[in-house]
Write a structure and sequence with these properties.
By secondary structure, the protein is of the alpha+beta class. It has helices at 70-86, 93-109, 111-122, 126-148, 151-154, and strands at residues 33-34, 36-38, 41-43, 50-54, 61-66. It has a three-stranded mixed β-sheet, with no helix packed on it. The chain has a two-stranded antiparallel ribbon with strand order 2-3.
């Protein structure tokens, strides 16, 4: 044995406390119920309707999710319109870009959580959620954040302004 080395005299199996694997569901904090996020706060749907989202792999319920109805969509669009008129439309491209950049950074910071949850909820392989979906989502926000302060240069003689409120129906789980 080399000088200054220590010999392990304890031959019992080592006990290790490991952190959860990055793709483990242990990193998630899934609530039992999710409300609608409108005007900066969580609100119950006017219809009081919820649906259960379940993991396609196990068929186990993940959470109850608020089901937005026409009244909820109207409320959300009105809130978005106020935010657009009072704040967003008055920001410069550089200021809007900073918000988009921050969204991209949050997506990157929490990418593991989002990927695990996307795989649980949608049934897709973690490799696809982690290595494709999350980098693409963050990348899109980075891309548009980068363009936000350059639009005036891209279209000489014109001032690029936000168009307004858009409502979207996303056709995935």
């Amino acid at each position: 044995m080399p000088p200054n080395s220590t010999k392990r005299t304890d031959t019992s199996p080592a006990r290790w406390d490991y952190a959860a694997a990055p793709e483990s569901t242990a990193i998630l904090n899934v609530r039992d119920r999710y409300e609608l996020f409108i005007n900066g706060e969580w609100v119950k749907p006017k219809s009081k309707k919820y649906f259960t989202t379940a993991s396609p792999a196990t068929l186990k319920p993940l959470a109850q999710v608020a089901e937005a109805g026409v009244a909820d969509v109207d409320r959300a669009v009105k809130a978005a319109r106020r935010a657009y008129e009072d704040v967003w439309s008055k920001l410069s491209g550089a200021e809007r870009g900073r918000y988009l950049f921050r969204i991209a950074r949050i997506l990157q910071e929490r990418a593991r959580e989002f990927a695990v949850l996307e795989s649980l909820d949608g049934g897709k392989p973690i490799k696809e959620s982690r290595d494709i979906d999350m980098p693409l989502a963050a990348g899109h926000f980075f891309y548009y954040a980068g363009w936000a302060d350059k639009l005036d240069m891209a279209f000489p003689g014109k001032t690029a302004r936000p168009v307004g409120v858009a409502a979207q129906i996303i056709p995935w789980n």
